Amino acid sequence: MTLRRLLLVVVGGMLGTAARLGVGLLVPSAGGFPLATLIANVVGALLISVLAARLPGSTDARVFLGTGVLGGFTTYSAFAVGTVELWADEPTTAAVYVLLTLGLGVAAAFTGLRIGRPRGKGAA
To answer: How, per the record, is this protein's activity regulated (predicted)?
Structure first.
């Protein structure tokens, strides 16, 4: 059981990391602003929250998609390094990047939970 879950996270992580690289190749940096990282983190926050609302925490699908694929797709470390690098030359832009990442990420997570919440009889 544990080895299967580990393999699900490993394979999912490879796919998610490759997808993040793809975003980075498709979305160029705008004057040093890490736009691809911002996009990956905000989209990832939205998708992780939809997943959290839809799938129980212990399912293989959630381990593969949430921890693996979306865990590999989103990146706190690139966000942190990008912020520090940006701060050296453009502290105001770095502050905007932090506020955008956190604000849009929280808004995306809120939206994803609302989208993913099951609807039906008795749902508000």
So the answer is: Na(+) is not transported, but it plays an essential structural role and its presence is essential for fluoride channel function.
